[in-house]
Amino acid sequence: MNTSSLPRIAVLATGGTIAGQAGDASKTAGYKAGVVGVDKLLDAVPALGSVARIHAEQIASIDSKDMSAALWTTLSRRVAALLAQDDIDGVVVTHGTDTLEETAYLLHLTVKSAKPVVLTAAMRPSTALSADGPLNLLNAVTVAASKDAAGQGVLVAFNNQIHSARDVTKTSTYAVDAFRSPETGALGFVQDGRVEFQRTVVRPHTVASEFDVPAGQWPMVEIVASYADVSRVVVDALVAAGVKGIVVAGTGNGSMHATLTQALVDAMKHGVVVVRASRVGAGHVMRNGAANDDALGSVSAGTLNPYKARVLLMLALTSGVKDLQRVFDMY
């Protein structure tokens, strides 16, 4: 087979369950994440050679629960640099499932290229019976090699579905179909080499995004939750520590306990930005819906979950954005 005409896809490995290893093939928990190198991941999927020419790099070897802002900066810049090369047609990032949705959204907002960027992962370690990583990797490369994926922003290929980085979230602790886009559904599917998109991304991203990763330190933004009988201890401690922003995982439509609300009002008097999201898992938080944002000075996260709202807020604070509600309504 003449492979010279195949697209060239860069595969960047960061660790995760897809690179996990356990001593017992019957076990899907209790493994060590991120120990299998990118070369072995690729060797496990010989069919990749008929889909693309692969350029492989090991960016990190971590359990994605330990993802850091510093690694986000490294990854975003490396993806951008590769996509700027004429001989690279797309990028696939292998990642752990725990923080995949946050990394995907970060790249969605900071990578300035229309070329495909696809994240994938696995719910079962590479040593497990019926490991899902090899097929997910093959599908991710297939999507990245597809011309139809260009201009769609950062994508997640998982369990034969294609999701937008903005919409997707992890919804199961164990199932191989752990990733869903609760409000909008998947963008399309990939199966046996066929890539089909059934809708397109409408919000700005990548080349249309106003954001970039910070040149220096990321601003401190933390998440607090509202629940029955919540205290103000966490909010007060964060203000004392110099936090720049707080995202609230509120109840229902972003509602907040009265005690927490007063603590956040006091925090805003110290210059802390407060964004209201919801802990529910689906739906949107209406501005002035469950709280008077105009009076409080808070921002609605819209349909972003608390973790993605934190990513956007950090980028907005880094960029010096003044109208934060505009940003959350737009992105």
Automatic annotation (TrEMBL):
Domain Asparaginase/glutaminase C-terminal: 221-322
Keyword Hydrolase in annotation: yes
GO biological process, one term: asparagine metabolic process
Residues noted as binding substrate in the record, renumbered to the chain: S64, T97, D98
Top-level taxonomic group: Bacteria
Family annotation (SMART domains): Asparaginase
Signal peptide range in chain numbering: none
Keyword hit for Hydrolase: yes
All residue ranges annotated as the L-asparaginase N-terminal domain in the record: 8-201
One Pfam entry name: Asparaginase_C
Keywords: Hydrolase
PROSITE patterns given in the database record: ASN_GLN_ASE_1, ASN_GLN_ASE_2, ASN_GLN_ASE_3
Residues annotated as the enzyme's active site: T17, T97
SUPFAM superfamilies: Glutaminase/Asparaginase (SSF53774)
One GO MF term: asparaginase activity
Family as reported in the entry's similarity comment: Belongs to the asparaginase 1 family.
Identification of the protein by name: L-asparaginase II
